[in-house]
Amino acid sequence: MAESRHLSDTTRVEAFSDGVFAIAITLLVLEIRVPTPDATEHGHTLLAALRGLWPSYLGYVLSFVTIGIMWANHHSIFHYIRRADRYFVLINVTFLLCISFLPFPTALLAEYLPEPGGRTLAVAVYSATLVVIALAYNALWWYAVAGDRLLAADADRDAVRTISRRYAAGPISYGISFGLAFVNVWASLAVHGLLAALYLLPERTSPGRPSRE
Amino acid sequence: MAESRHLSDTTRVEAFSDGVFAIAITLLVLEIRVPTPDATEHGHTLLAALRGLWPSYLGYVLSFVTIGIMWANHHSIFHYIRRADRYFVLINVTFLLCISFLPFPTALLAEYLPEPGGRTLAVAVYSATLVVIALAYNALWWYAVAGDRLLAADADRDAVRTISRRYAAGPISYGISFGLAFVNVWASLAVHGLLAALYLLPERTSPGRPSRE
Amino acid sequence: MAESRHLSDTTRVEAFSDGVFAIAITLLVLEIRVPTPDATEHGHTLLAALRGLWPSYLGYVLSFVTIGIMWANHHSIFHYIRRADRYFVLINVTFLLCISFLPFPTALLAEYLPEPGGRTLAVAVYSATLVVIALAYNALWWYAVAGDRLLAADADRDAVRTISRRYAAGPISYGISFGLAFVNVWASLAVHGLLAALYLLPERTSPGRPSRE
Amino acid sequence: MAESRHLSDTTRVEAFSDGVFAIAITLLVLEIRVPTPDATEHGHTLLAALRGLWPSYLGYVLSFVTIGIMWANHHSIFHYIRRADRYFVLINVTFLLCISFLPFPTALLAEYLPEPGGRTLAVAVYSATLVVIALAYNALWWYAVAGDRLLAADADRDAVRTISRRYAAGPISYGISFGLAFVNVWASLAVHGLLAALYLLPERTSPGRPSRE
Description:
Four copies of one chain form a homotetramer.
Chain A: H1 2-27, H2 43-51, H3 54-77, H4 86-101, H5 103-112, H6 119-145, H7 157-181, H8 185-200
Helix pairs in contact in A: 1-3, 1-4, 3-5, 3-8, 4-6, 5-6, 6-7, 6-8, 7-8
């Protein structure tokens, strides 16, 4: 009985989080502005205008994939976490606050990437946001696993340690991309692309397959 | 059978409410406007422009945390409320109407906080909205618990009374912040921050732990 | 087994519909525009500007309550409908297309209600949209109940007939408000308010109480 | 136990996808802009302005129905797919990235359909987006059914083959509408309408009726 209530808790935390993830990811498209007909005279010029939106497309894809990976990870930790307490819910809200903020630095990136004078700051703000997101995500995970606080009784401890190490690399990697922004913005963005690609590699304990089958 | 239908009712009320909470909380970021490149010449100026957006960041964090706490509370009362009738659903829709409205006073706050001539009214409108939200939330709770109308049969009556007292303090506290807006807007905003912090304190019956384990 | 799959179908139709309802209802607030500081010099002028937004508040409340009632009704028919087939899903998508469109006539109403030259058309478009929504809703209900196509085996036939009569009154009532728009816009809007109030009256078979307990 | 975890996986993938579908479909209305009162002097002119928005209405209906059908299809494949692994989740995120992008080409279509110089490109971009969406959708389905990777044990193999054939026609059909855009934009749009109508035809294995009852 008590167990079923706890599970129900996690269910609603997951549902609310899914909602925020789904909305934040879908709002990204609103930042891609259709060129006005006044600014374009014929098809050729519209083509040029659409090409000129490449920083918006780049920002859209980068942030979409990043939020998508964050969602997939958030999804997968609930294989191990079966209960939610007040503080877990609050750390989760803080994490979602950071995720929901991402459309703003994405729009900033899209607007200032073509501007030599603003692009360093835009990429730095974008990377800094991801450092904070990664820290909040680690806080969520650490709070749940510390002293097995909210872990499922049958959670594979080795898998948990592997995930902890993996997640700890997040803030460090995004920190590097933050530092690189002041050296070369394209190198910094390349790190973001690389991090997304790395997350796609299989891990020892895949989220789709429970660890102790 | 009847019981399972009632539970299913509450489930869909919770799901719909979660949707509205999740969307209202995520729409807040749309109010933070990216500075236009025309208005900024180089990185330094962009930095100044981004700093100048502090009222938007403040409004975003304040409203996000407030909606987050409202969601967590709304979430936790369904440990006690297991059935929904027509009027409960309608009071809940009214409550959601107020929650959904919050992005408007938040944008008003962000726009007028730096304006000496408008900030009193902006903070007063923001506080007044929260008074109404808190009243609607109390109406929802009171309707459900009055005469045990929609309470779970096994709900802890002491816990219910504690929650009732706690919630009753909401409209009064926000009323104080409303009054303070006409004396000193920063004191009024400080009350909002303080109220958020107070909600984070543990209560006797935490939502994560059923009261009669 | 087959039965549980059917139920699961309805669950996802309900979940998707809830999502669309929740988003359409929450997007309404985006149509209320914060007055620009340039247009207002001091607190008094801001107060006047905020008062001048009354058509936006009116549109927000009217459309929010209308969508809220539509959602509550949509919610309650799934006490009787337990299965979904392809055509039911498609009629439901058409119904949602109309619901999602409502923010546009609401914004039109808010913009043109103070304009003597445009208000008749704005109120007529608003009412016409609700006629179409009510027709789509009736189509959804009629498709499900005709020949007991998708009704639950234990559905109370008397309750179903009562609901059918009630729903049939929707397009007619909104049709009257459409006609009234060309005579007097305020009388037309009063009908909208009256219809919302009428929906709040108890019906013989309340959605919270199954009909054959 | 393992089975129930797999089912739960699919549940959250479906819930997240439903969220993205619901938001993308509801955001479409934001692209229909209310004409400003300054541009219209009296009711007659507003009527003309509202008539002039026909490309926005067309784009809204076309994209709404398209996303609605995509959702219904996505919904129906989970009758056959009962498990989700890491790569399935990632292909699904990519598919959702394309779905979420649709409001942009829809707005482009609405803006440039009346412009002789831009309409070819606008319709081509719109069709190209649907080619990519259809390819991503096929990738999702093929990944799941190849070698019965994620199929339910009791899935009807004949039904699966029928669906595979049906889905494979999607990218080809949208490819034809892409090619037609350069010949005649109205013929290209007619193909879109026709494809929507074709999807409404009954298939041998309807989603509402499991294949082996």
